[in-house]
Design a protein that fits this description.
The protein is elongated. The chain starts with a helix and ends with a helix. It has about 100 residues and is mostly helical.
Length: about 100
């Protein structure tokens, strides 16, 4: 019975944590959308993408760091609090991967 509880406990936490942005792979993005851009338009678009990528990076890093802190505190003090971790990779992580692909 105890092994079953430990296995269920461990399984409930897998995949519930936010991925650090450094570990998110760039998405493949078509370059067709940039075919008719002139030089200054490409520079402006690169600046926009860089700015948005940095915003997403910091947001995802904060979420991942918060998950790590909650996990540490939860394991040491109150393991039931681990059920309320907010992490996971959502739309922000997908947008970050797309933006990295566009930037590359």
């Amino acid at each position: 019975m105890r092994r079953l509880l430990v296995a269920a406990f461990a399984a409930s936490f897998t995949g519930g944590f936010a991925t650090h942005p450094e570990k998110i792979q760039s998405a493949s993005v078509s370059t067709i959308q940039y075919n008719n851009f002139v030089c200054y338009q490409l520079v402006m678009e690169a600046d926009r993408i860089s700015s948005r990528t940095n915003e997403r990076y910091h947001s995802l890093k904060k979420t991942a760091d918060n998950d790590e802190v909650q996990m540490g505190v939860g394991l040491i003090l109150l393991w039931p609090t681990l059920f309320f971790l907010e992490g996971g990779d959502g739309p922000e992580a997908q947008e970050y991967a797309r933006l990295r692909g566009e930037r590359e």
